[in-house]
Write a structure and sequence with these properties.
Number of helices: 7
Shape: globular
Number of domains: 1
Radius of gyration: 18 Å
CATH architecture: Alpha-Beta Barrel
Strand order of the largest sheet: 4-3-1-2-5-6-7-8-9-10
Order of helices and strands: EEEEHEHEHEHEHEHEH
């Protein structure tokens, strides 16, 4: 085992988004991202220091040197699972963008999934990297980035379509962040991508959270977008960022 990973932070909390919202997870946030979304609240720049919760769920952190070895991560997980038996549903690898590190994850995931199911949170733009790891992943939460909210400089629809085809059959769900400027045509394009692969894939509409915690879209707007998507897809849900409502990490 030679691959090392640069970890931004490791902590224990409630999953606040998507299919596993409400489940307790160990979160492993990796450094670096291939996108720069307007609403992103995460510092994903590469650093020689990461953060580790001193006790799972405490929200008290200590600094740890980077990069981290698989041996150290497995030891940590065994310690936390011993301290809180049965509390954690799964381990969520998030970022940044985890699939930038697919070579290392292909080595790490077979060992980690012996302890907990693996939940992959991804921006859904790296289908070739997903090929390397998807057989070890129990759940895939894929973002679709809308120009109205993410503000990315490139058109990502083709990459999202390729990614969803690659993820199909691996408990994949789609999340898209919507705001006051989100258009009907954007929602229809999301539906087009999903229905081209499998109409039964769940779609989660997540109201954008503004700095300070305010929701950046009205209830009437979000209901209208849900109505539009539901005319095309059978499973469309609206979930705000629940962990923020709870005051959790």
């Amino acid at each position: 085992m030679s691959n090392l990973l640069y970890i931004s932070e490791i902590f224990s909390s409630i999953q606040g988004e998507g299919m596993l919202a409400g489940c307790r997870q160990i979160f492993v946030r990796l450094m670096e991202c291939n996108l720069d979304c307007r609403y992103c609240d995460t510092d994903f720049k590469k650093s020689d220091t990461g953060r580790l919760e001193s006790k799972p769920g405490s929200a008290a952190f200590v600094n740890i040197p980077q990069p981290m070895s698989l041996h150290n991560m497995i030891s940590l997980f065994n310690e936390w699972l011993g301290q809180l038996p049965g509390a954690h549903h799964s381990v969520s690898f998030t970022g940044g963008e985890p699939l930038l590190h697919a070579d290392a994850l292909a080595e790490w995931f077979p060992e980690i999934k012996k302890l907990l199911p693996i939940h992959l949170e991804t921006n859904g733009t790296l289908p070739v990297a997903l090929q390397r790891v998807k057989q070890h992943v129990s759940y895939i939460s894929m973002d679709m980035k809308l120009p109205s909210t993410a503000g990315c400089s490139e058109d990502l629809w083709a990459a999202h379509a390729l990614f969803l085809r690659e993820a199909h059959g691996h408990n994949v769900s789609v999340k898209t962040v919507v705001g006051a400027l989100t258009s009907e045509s954007e929602i229809m394009q999301v539906c087009d991508v999903i229905s081209s692969v499998d109409v039964s894939i769940p779609l989660f509409l997540q109201p954008v959270t503004q700095p300070g915690g305010a929701i950046g879209i009205t209830a009437a707007q979000i209901l209208h977008l849900q109505e539009l998507a539901s005319s095309r897809l059978p499973d469309v849900r609206v979930i705000p960022q629940m962990h923020l409502l709870l005051g959790a990490l």
